[in-house]
């Protein structure tokens, strides 16, 4: 027998192979269960969103086959010009569902939603992107640790508080400065809405800017390019896909916002391109009227139809945004 072979009696410990194997098996089991748990949560979230859409769509479908609903609120009445008003003052698009002759033109609502969203992006996007660029490229570590949480803290402010401030404070300021005819208008609602979308655009843009490879900056600085020029001409274009994704998310957030526009827009369904006129958005219309509408009436079905359309528009917008972001990434990679 070879004396060099360790045994239990020679003083050497025998490796606990069974214990090691059982430990590895236990870790694999934990990884398997944790992966399945994450998959279950993801599937549950997708299922809930899908079921919400199914419910909203189910409540809107009677608008297409119910005789009374089609007579009162057909697709032609929803989208095509009508002969409302008088010959001296024609009103082709009117939203007035509670009247002797109900009117369900949705164009004023879409126009109001678009105006408020555009104002919010024009005001909020430059501020958010500029703050993200400063935080990622110029601010010191100490300043960055102050600015980033402070901006992201805006996301925690309830939208009803933003609407309340816009209703009582911001609207008066804007009217005193610019002399608006209407105190509550698309500009007032859009500026207040910008405060709600700035944290989203800032966070995603800042992550995109910090994800740009450090070699891009070093190569530009090595050629003698100033820091500000490097940030503007090198880092910012390289982060374009992420910034574009941030704008898409901000646009979708603004389209679905309710309380800010409900309190700060004036809630007047006016077909006008002027930003200084009062507006009424789709989400504000649903929030204001769904609680008092007659159950299973044409008005009820139209409100759910508007909700389904808003859901589909937001989904399509996100899909188009994902596609364009992918194209931008391929273009920046030279493919």
Report on the structure:
The chain is mainly α and 335 residues long. The protein folds into two domains: 20-60; 77-332, MetI-like (MetI-like fold), CATH 1.10.3720.10. Helix content is 70%, strand content 2%. It contains 14 helices and four strands. The protein has helices at 17-60, 62-65, 67-73, 75-79, 107-137, 141-152, 159-178, 186-210, 214-222, 227-238, 240-256, 259-264, 282-289, 298-332, and strands spanning 84-85, 90-91, 95-96, 103-104. Strands 1-2 form a two-stranded antiparallel ribbon. Strands 3-4 form a two-stranded antiparallel ribbon. Helix 3 (67-73) packs across helix 14 and helix 7 crosses helix 8 (186-210). It is globular and about 75 Å long. The N and C termini lie far apart (68 Å).
């Amino acid at each position: 027998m070879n004396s060099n072979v360790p045994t239990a009696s020679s003083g050497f410990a025998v490796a606990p192979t069974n214990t090691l194997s059982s430990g590895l098996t236990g870790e694999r089991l934990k990884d398997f269960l944790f992966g399945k748990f994450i998959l279950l949560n993801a599937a549950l979230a997708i299922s809930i969103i899908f079921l919400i859409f199914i419910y909203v769509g189910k409540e809107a479908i009677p608008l297409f086959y119910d005789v009374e609903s089609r007579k009162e609120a057909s697709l032609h009445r929803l989208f095509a010009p009508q002969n409302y008003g008088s010959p001296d003052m024609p009103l082709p698009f009117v939203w007035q569902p509670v009247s002797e002759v109900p009117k369900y033109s949705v164009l004023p609502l879409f126009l109001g939603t678009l105006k408020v969203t555009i104002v919010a992006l024009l005001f909020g996007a430059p501020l958010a992107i500029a703050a993200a660029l400063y935080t990622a490229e110029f601010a010191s570590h100490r300043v960055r640790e102050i600015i980033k949480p402070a901006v992201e803290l805006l996301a925690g402010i309830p939208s009803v508080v933003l609407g309340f401030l816009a209703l009582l404070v911001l609207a008066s300021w804007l009217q005193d400065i610019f002399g608006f005819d209407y105190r509550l208008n698309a500009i007032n609602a859009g500026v207040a809405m910008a405060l709600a979308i700035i944290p989203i655009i800032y966070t995603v843009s800042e992550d995109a800017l910090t994800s740009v490879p450090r070699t891009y900056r070093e190569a530009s600085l090595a050629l003698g390019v100033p820091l500000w020029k490097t940030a503007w001409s090198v880092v910012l274009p390289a982060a374009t896909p992420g910034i574009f994704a941030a704008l898409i998310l901000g646009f979708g957030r603004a389209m679905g916002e309710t309380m800010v526009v409900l309190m700060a827009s004036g809630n007047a369904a006016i077909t006008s391109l002027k930003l200084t006129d009062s507006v009424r958005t789709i989400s504000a219309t649903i929030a204001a009227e769904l609680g008092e509408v007659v159950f299973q009436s044409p008005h009820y079905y139209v409100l759910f139809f508007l909700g389904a359309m808003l859901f589909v528009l937001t989904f399509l917008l996100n899909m188009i945004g994902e596609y364009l972001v992918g194209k931008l990434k391929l273009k920046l990679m030279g493919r």
